[in-house]
Amino acid sequence: MNELEKLAELLLPEINKTPQYYEELYPARNLSENARVVRIAPSPTGYLHLGTLFAALINRITATVSGGVFFTRIEDTDKKREVEGGIENIIGGLKQFGIQIDEGYISGTEEKGNYGPYKQSLRAEIYKTYVKELIKQGLAYPCFCTPEELDAVRSQQEQNKERTGYHGKYAKHRNITFAEAEALIKDGKEFVIRLRSPGCEENRITFEDGIKGKIEMPENDEDFVLLKSDGIPTYHFAHAIDDHLMRTTHVIRGDEWISSVPKHLQLFKILGFKPPKFAHVAPIMKLENGAKRKISKRKDPEAAVHFFAEQGFEGEIVLEYLMTIAASDFEDWRRANPDASYKDFKFNLKKMSVSGALFDENKLLDVSKNRISRLKSGEVYEKLTAWAKQFDAQFYNILTANPEYTVKMLGIDRDNSAKPRKDLAKWAEAKDYFAYFYNELFTPCYTLPENINKADAANFLQEYIKVYDPQDDRMAWFEKIKSIAPGLNFAADTKEYKANPQDYKGHAGDLSTVLRIAVTGRRNTPDLCSIMQVLGKEECENRINAAISEYRR
Ligand code: GLU
Predict the structure, then answer these.
(1) What's the 40 CA to ligand 1 centre distance in angstroms?
(2) Which of 58, 267, 346, 530 is in Cβ range 3.0-4.6 Å of 412 for a Cys bridge?
(3) Is residue 327 classed as helix, strand or coil in its secondary structure?
């Protein structure tokens, strides 16, 4: 055994496998040449965040359009920040949004696929095997510096206005001998394993980022940590090993990692791995007082994805919206393909925003209204009640007490309409929006438009109730209102009213507003004739009579 082999044995005596073993255990994937193997690698430190959902969507669709694989890997190397149920929060959240996971963690506890384990804490032996090999090759070494020593070096570097970090003359243990290491270990000293970087700061490296294009940076010359003192790898090292052995072809991740690419490319090179293609996604931004800023977990409720679920945004619609900010050509495609699933869109990373897409809740509401307007009443019933079941039990009970009634109500201006009404954007609005259909929720409001007095309103309703027939279609329904108008000195015809407004108190449209207020308590509603058909004769008469007494008081 030479010195380096002895050092490797000293530091990692428990490791007896070789990299070759893992290379064979995880062979190249049997996929077509263009297929992209992509992943998200979340840390289970809390809820599913919008940024993770966005990254998952982009990765998922990249895999889909190329006939590739999308997998999840859990990066749980920071045990201090891990929260209970963290994996379930993230994976369950993705599933709720309809993001299909081909491989890796598919629930809080289960994984599938041939390239696992898909959780980093279960991969310690693999990382150590590769580190041991690097030590043997003189490409990694133990460093016994204490945090205090490292801090002191940093302060000195700052004082000297030098680049901070463990590099060049500051890499204290770079040339440690076997005997020195052995003595320190015998003394019970803790150590980390560092890379012996072959790089030089003067050299430049370039790479082609899948989103940002060509990027040039100084080569890495820092002897950064590969394994921490507890044997757990750093992100950099785990990324190189995992994405190589899991045969990732494209690493599409947040652009906070872009400055680390020189480290990563160096690792791939010295490990003898073919590097993946990198694509760095800019964070989702928000406009605040005219300035763009990153969406913040602390300030913005929508940063945590369960906000959308609570508000009753359909998962698929949120993804549809995210597609509009992910791809500049998505909306044109949508106009040309109004009925297709967003999953059929031919996504291309090059069409992504380089500087950060803007999250705009109004736009989301718009996209959502459009999508919901295309659903039939039965589908709306399913989705609305599923939401209410989870978030509003009282409303759920009301909606489901008479499903047929609720479906009929949801069909108004929708099922047989060439231009369905674009009203609801999220289920949390539905209770208020539909309140007047349910006596438990209906609160009358009898305030009249300014040009109509109570006596006229009462007289009109009194006449109307005499001729009201729940069988009337829209035409007949409005004809009846028109037929009452002249007797009250209202114009039957709006044009006629507009030509000679001084001759009338108002027109038939004003009278239909009186009826609308009596029946629904509102001035704006979907088609009133249909509403009255759904409410039924008895209920309409009760409400009209109640309004008459109110106006006669
Ligand atoms: N755990 C890393 C993060 O959450 C993963 C980055 C990556 O996709 O490689 O930022």
Answers:
(1) 7
(2) 530
(3) coil
426 in the same domain as 468: no
Of the listed ranges 261-275, 316-330, 527-541, the least confidently predicted one is 316-330
- Give the pLDDT confidence score for residue 288 in this predicted structure: 87
Å from CA of 164 to ligand 1 middle: 24
User: What's the total number of domains in the chain?
Assistant: 3
240 lines ligand 1 (CB under 6 A): no
Distance 69 CA to ligand 1 centre (A): 18
Query: Distance from the CA of 38 to the center of ligand 1, in angstroms?
Result: 12
Residue 444 is assigned to a structural domain of this protein: no
Q: Predicted confidence band at 330 (pLDDT cuts at 50, 70, 90)?
A: very high
Ligand 1, atom nearest to 252 Cα: 8
Q: Are residues 168 and 274 in the same domain?
A: yes
Q: Are residues 494 and 384 in the same domain?
A: no
pLDDT digits (tens, 9 = 90+) for 394-447: 999 999 999 999 999 999 999 988 899 999 999 999 999 999 999 999 999 999
CATH code (residue 538): 1.10.10.350
Look at residue 544 in the predicted model and tell me its pLDDT.
Answer: 98
Does the C-beta of 42 come closer than 6 Å to ligand 1?
yes
Q: How many helices and strands (H and E) does the chain possess?
A: 23, 15
- Are both 150 and 191 inside the same structural domain? yes
Same domain? For 400 and 496 the reply is: no
Sort 444 into a burial class: Cβ within 10 Å, 0-12 / 13-18 / 19+. Answer: middle
Place of tokens 């289970």: 44
Assess whether the C-beta atom of 239 lies below 6 angstroms from ligand 1.
yes
- Closest residue to atom 4 of ligand 1, CA basis: 42
Taking only Cα atoms into account, the Rg of the chain, rounded to an integer number of angstroms, comes to: 33
Same domain membership, residue 268 and residue 167: yes
Our mutation pick for probing the ligand 1 site, out of 38, 40, 249, counting the most ligand atoms within 8 A of Cβ, is 40
Residue 318, pLDDT score: 93
426 plus 465 within the same structural domain: no
Q: Find out whether 261 and 270 touch, Cβ atoms under 8 Å.
A: no
Distance 121 CA to ligand 1 centre (A): 15
CB contact burial 182-197 (16+ within 10 A = b; e otherwise):
eebeeeeeebbbbbbb
pLDDT tens-digit readout, 130-152: 999 999 999 999 999 999 999 99
pLDDT over threshold 90, residue 54: yes
Three-state SS at 209: strand
Ligand 1 centroid from CA 443, angstroms: 51
Domain ranges, residue 425: 377-437
pLDDT at residue 61 tops 90:
yes
- Same domain? For 241 and 129 the reply is yes
- We report the CATH number of the domain holding residue 201 as 3.40.50.620
Distance between CA atoms of 421 and 545, rounded to whole angstroms?
30
Looking at the DSSP bridge assignments, the partners of residue 40 are 72
Q: Is 364 inside a domain boundary?
A: no
Ligand 1 centroid from CA 335, angstroms? 34
Averaged confidence pLDDT in the chain: 95
